[in-house]
Design brief:
37% of the residues lie in helices and 21% in strands. It has 281 residues and is of the alpha/beta class. The mean pLDDT is 96. The structure holds pantoate (PAF).
Length: 281
């Protein structure tokens, strides 16, 4: 396994590759967990060559967010990548990704302002910018993303299509702990009581899913029932609990057969997101 820190070197290595070689790419911010490993495993199976990036992208953090405290267990991450058969770990230095004078950003309009975008202004601009850079540096055949970050996946699919990036996007299912909590690098901030508490998010999503599948289309009522389930456990502040259209993240109406039930909450200072795609009968 090679560890490459320079975008230029990686770019030179991969753009000169033979056409036949299929390259899979898994972008991460490190602190790898079972969710990342499921993407890596899938990408390993489906490609001849596998690149994983580990980069805590400063451009997607707001001024009062957790950039400095974001976990960076690089030794362990590299060991996991080696074990999983990764060919190249791209672990760029921030100054090489964002050199002095950097002023070009990618914005996927509208979609980036909704849901998480409303409380994290600039976040998806940072994500779209860094992923565009990765796609140009790596030129993968397939980009692997996790469904846990549903809005991110929708935005990046839109960007790939709008900007004609020649890459296929695959979105893989969320990996969950025993109590249903979606695995996430930020779960490392939670203590055992908070992890137990966070299990209620999956319960609330499932209750909403059950009602929608059962034919209930009063989404406001469903949202308020789901919020009550969360409120019954003290210590969770809900940022949003929404039922939206999968294509444009607008409020779902009765015409949408498949909807995204999505939430973001805070437990103490930790922000958690989760979602469920539901198909109406
Ligand atoms: O999902 C993440 O970990 C990040 O947003 C990504 C896609 C690696 C971009 O920094």
């Amino acid at each position: 396994m090679k560890i490459i820190r320079s975008p230029k070197i990686l770019n030179a290595l991969l753009t000169r590759r033979e056409r036949k070689i299929k390259v899979g790419f898994v972008p991460t911010m490190g602190a790898l967990h079972a969710g990342h490993l499921s993407l890596i495993e899938r990408a390993r199976k489906e490609n001849d060559f596998l690149v994983v990036s580990i980069f805590v992208n400063p451009a997607q953090f707001g001024p009062r967010e957790d950039l400095d405290k974001y976990p960076r267990p690089i030794k362990n991450d590299l060991a996991l990548c080696r074990k999983a058969g990764v060919d190249i770990v791209f672990f760029p230095e921030p100054r090489l990704m964002y050199p002095e004078g950097f002023t070009t950003y990618v914005t996927v309009e509208k979609l980036s302002d909704l849901l998480c975008g409303a409380s994290r202004p600039g976040h998806f601009r940072g994500v779209a910018t860094v992923v565009s850079k990765f796609l140009n540096i790596v030129s993968p055949d397939t980009l692997y993303l996790g469904q846990k970050d549903a809005q991110q996946a929708i935005i990046l699919k839109r960007m790939v299509s709008d900007l004609n990036f020649p890459v296929k996007v695959k979105v893989m299912p969320t990996v969950r702990s025993e109590n249903g909590l979606a695995v996430s690098s930020r779960n490392a901030y939670l203590n055992s009581r908070e992890i137990e508490l966070a299990g209620v998010l999956w319960e609330a999503l499932n209750r909403a899913g059950e009602l929608i599948r059962g034919g209930n289309m009063d989404y406001q009522k469903i949202i308020s029932e789901a919020r009550k389930i969360i409120a019954a456990r003290k210590g969770i502040a809900v940022d949003y609990f929404s039922i939206v259209n999968l294509d444009n993240l607008s409020r779902a109406d009765n015409k949408n057969r498949r909807v995204l039930v999505a939430l973001a909450v805070r437990i103490n200072k930790t922000r958690l997101i989760d979602n469920l795609i539901v198909c109406r009968r």
